[in-house]
Structure formats: C-alpha cells, structure tokens
Amino acid sequence: MRRSAGRLFLRRGWGLILSFGLFLCVILGLGVLRFHAARKAYYLDSLNLSIQQLSNEETALKQEISALAAPIKIYSYCKERLGMQKVADAETLAIHLRGVQVAQKKDVPPEKEEGWHMRLAWLWGK
C-alpha cells in the first residue's frame, strides 16, 4: 500500500505542478493580451487626437479661403493694390478683317441636320 500511496502522491504532485504551470501560462497570456490592447488603445487615442487637430486646422483654412474669396475682398484688393477703378461706361470695338476667312456654320435647316435619316447616313456614305 505504501508503494501505491507513494505513486499516488507523485501523480498528484506532478498534476499539481502541471496545473499550476498551466495556470501561470494562462495568467501570463492574459497579461500580454491586456498589455497589447492597452498599446492599441493608446495608438487609437493618438490617432483620434491628430484627426481632431487636422479637422480643426481644415476648418480654419476653409474659413480663411472663404474670407479671401469674398467679392468685397477681391474688389477692395483690386481697388487698393492694383489701382483699378469702377468704369461707368464700357465701350466695345468692332474689328473688321479683310482677306481673312472666318469659319461659319452651314446654313442648313435643322430638319436636315437631325432626324432618323441622319442617323442612318453612314449607310449611304454621307
């Protein structure tokens, strides 16, 4: 009986040691997973912070662009810096060129340009 009791004790001892080792491995694995999750959460927080800063900067730049592109701003810039003045009467010039041919549209009635027969004109080679 002593031999079997000793063997049972050895079996229990190894079983306890193995179960304790397995328990430590599980605890260590969970700690590693928690550390990894904390690192990823920190990374996501830093990304969210940079996204928020960039969106604030974009909003400020949009406001600056809209202020620069305002018609009153353009008018005042043209008047003050470029010396432009508002013209009361605008004049037009007509230039007649001699000896220059200008491309003109054919005087063809619209029913000749459009219609079913013009869709099939490629059959007749027109």
Task: Please describe what this structure looks like.
The chain is mainly alpha-helical and 126 residues long. The chain has a domain at 2-88. 71% of the residues lie in helices and 0% in strands. The protein is built from five helices and no strands. The mean pLDDT is 80.
List the helices and strands and how they pair.
Layout: H1 2-68, H2 71-80, H3 110-113, H4 116-119, H5 121-124
DSSP strand content: under 5%
Cα-to-Cα separation, first versus last residue: 116 Å
Helix and strand composition category: mainly alpha
Helical percentage: over 70%
Question: SSE order in H/E notation?
Answer: HHHHH
Number of strands: 0
Rough outline: elongated
Mean pLDDT: 80
Uncertain regions spanning at least 5 consecutive residues: none
Tally of helical segments: 5
Biggest sheet features: none
Nearest-angstrom radius of gyration?
Answer: 44 Å
